Amino acid sequence: MVRWRITRDAGLLVAAASLIAIGCKTKTDSPAVPVKPAVTQVQTPPRPSVAPAPFKVFHKSDTTYTLVVPENATDEQVESLIWELRDAAHARTLDKLKISQKMVDERKPIVWFHIYRGSKCASEKYADGPPPCGGSYHAAGDYTYGGYRNRETDNGSIFHGEDHETQLWDPEVPYVAKGAES
Fold this sequence. Notes:
The protein has helices at 10-21, 75-91, 101-105; strands at residues 56-60, 64-69, 111-117, 141-145, 154-159, 165-167. It has 3 helices and 6 strands. By secondary structure, the chain is of the alpha+beta class. A 6-stranded mixed beta sheet has the order 1-2-3-4-5-6, with helices on one face. Strand 1 and strand 2 (64-69) form a beta hairpin.
């Protein structure tokens, strides 16, 4: 009895389809193998073409940077800043942005960049007492560099209100330097 387990691997799917097409037969009393629908990739927005929002380092620890951009920074400017952080982290040029490349290189194993519009809510992740802007998370965006299984993995997100997050790229896809995309 031949049983096929079809996975997301397109190669196996093509091989299975080829064998079926040329007449591979199974026992008539064997149960049918259900075919799962293809998983569609979440579409991420294109890289913005606007200049990154200017920022100041509001707070830093051994694993986190809290950055503050102007209160009127647009989503695209925040997205551009996240991409700028990503490019600099992978190129090992964060010092040019006045962020310690040494600290990022020595991360254990992750470093977080929390980006806030204005400084009012920026202390909510580390300050004692009740959060300054209430119980929810008020960042405009986040960039995370590093991981437990892969030190080069990263993730970037922009936030639109309390429950809406847009992922800027697929963290499972290896980084490709700006201009080197095909």
